[in-house]
TrEMBL record:
The gene is 106052493. InterPro entries: GPCR_Rhodpsn (IPR000276), GPCR_Rhodpsn_7TM (IPR017452). It is a multi-pass membrane protein. Keywords: G-protein coupled receptor, Membrane, Receptor, Transducer, Transmembrane, Transmembrane helix. It comes from Biomphalaria glabrata. Its main location: membrane. SUPFAM superfamilies: Family A G protein-coupled receptor-like. This is G-protein coupled receptors family 1 profile domain-containing protein. It comes from the Eukaryota.
Length: 377
């Protein structure tokens, strides 16, 4: 089950049935509604609001720094899609505040936003997951071939890759925007005109489209997760080896300084066999700055990996257990898990500013300079 159906099917449930009580369901209707209020209309709404500002700041800071390397390009691309995701999520969850004004208006807003915002959130998640996989591969290459990756992955190459990923992945799903039509109709329950949506003739004549959509919505995150896991393992291993190399180097240096004889002997060996030292440098040729960047992006990658686990688990549960779906035996449980998946999605899309600020000194300095928070040291 792809995430774009999560809220869409809930709205359809409201339109088809007014009360869904299944004795065999793990969760009750009241628990489902409470979860929707707490997780979706409060937590997700607040996180989206924060994400709009945090991603805007990230984009402004990277733009100020000038996109001098591939890292700035790729992370700006991720932040742009995270911004789209947070804006769409925030707009969709205006249903909650609008209920305080008018139930009919909130109902209409829910239906209209589902047609546009809900799918936009899902497609943004797919794009960012693939971009995260690209960032993981990019960082993996930095630790495997650090001396070559600088000229292989130039800012222009990184820009082309990020644009290609965005166009291809988003293009795989954009056709889904055309499966609904929105109508205005009088609703006796609200005693006023409300907006509703229905499947149009295009969707009715292309039933196979939904199978393609479900397959693509499952395939992209799962492949991205596998790539991220493999790359993360390689990066962690290489960083560990680099740390061990530095530790051995420091130990040897301290030992060699104990006596002048040992120091002279070591100097003679280095001059006598420079190829050995050159080979060592190439193996461990990761500068301290690059290591810090890799560690920072490794945190970003791990967060994406953690975010994808509940999504993939939800997909697998839907395929393994037939009744784990909307309007079936475990309707309420599936709805609650849907709200939970959205929490992971939006938190993942809003925390990059915090990571960059605390783990990148240049990002922190630029942020303070832009917003007048420079401190004198």
């Amino acid at each position: 089950m792809n995430s774009s159906d999560l809220l869409c099917q809930v709205a359809l449930c409201k339109a088809v049935v007014t009360s869904l009580v299944m004795a065999s369901d793990v969760a009750s209707d009241d628990q489902r509604r409470l979860s929707q209020i707490i997780l979706d209309l409060v937590i997700n709404f607040s996180v989206c609001f924060f994400g709009i500002f945090s991603n805007t700041i990230v984009i402004v800071v990277f733009t100020k720094q000038g996109f001098k390397d591939s890292t700035a390009i790729s992370m700006t691309a991720v932040s742009l899609w995270d911004l789209v995701k947070c804006v769409a999520g925030f707009m969709q969850r205006l249903e909650g505040p609008l209920e305080l004004v008018s139930l009919a208006l909130a109902y209409s807003w829910t239906n209209v936003s589902l047609v546009v915002c809900n799918y936009l959130v899902s497609f943004s998640c797919y794009v960012t997951s693939v971009l995260a996989a690209y960032v993981a591969v990019e960082r993996c290459l930095c630790v495997i071939i650090p001396l070559k990756v600088k000229w292989l992955l130039t800012p222009k190459v990184a820009l082309v890759i990020c644009v290609t990923i965005s166009v291809v992945v988003f293009g795989c799903f954009v056709i889904i925007f055309g499966i609904y039509d929105v109508f205005l109709t009088f609703d006796p329950h609200f005693n006023t005109t409300v907006a509703i949506f229905k499947y149009n003739s295009f969707s009715n004549n292309n039933v196979a489209l939904f199978g393609y959509y479900n397959m693509s919505g499952t395939l992209w995150p799962m492949v991205s997760l596998v790539v991220i896991i493999i790359s993360t393992v390689i990066i962690s291993y290489k960083l560990k080896k680099a740390a061990e190399f530095r530790y051995r180097t420091k130990t040897i240096t301290r030992s060699s300084m104990k006596t002048k004889t040992h120091q002279n002997l070591q100097t003679f060996q280095v001059k006598d066999n420079p190829q050995s030292m050159e080979k060592s440098d190439k193996t461990q040729g990761i500068s301290k700055r690059d290591q810090q960047v890799i560690k920072m992006l490794l945190v970003v990658i791990v967060i994406y990996m953690v975010n994808l686990f509940p999504r993939v688990a939800n997909y697998l549960g839907k395929f393994i257990v037939f009744d784990y779906y909307y309007l079936r035996r475990y309707h309420n449980l599936f709805s609650i898990m849907g709200y939970t998946v959205f929490v992971f999605d939006y938190v993942n899309g809003a925390v990059n500013l915090i990571i960059f600020y605390f783990m990148s000194s240049s990002f922190r300095e630029t942020t303070r300079s832009l917003f007048g928070c420079r401190t004198n040291t």
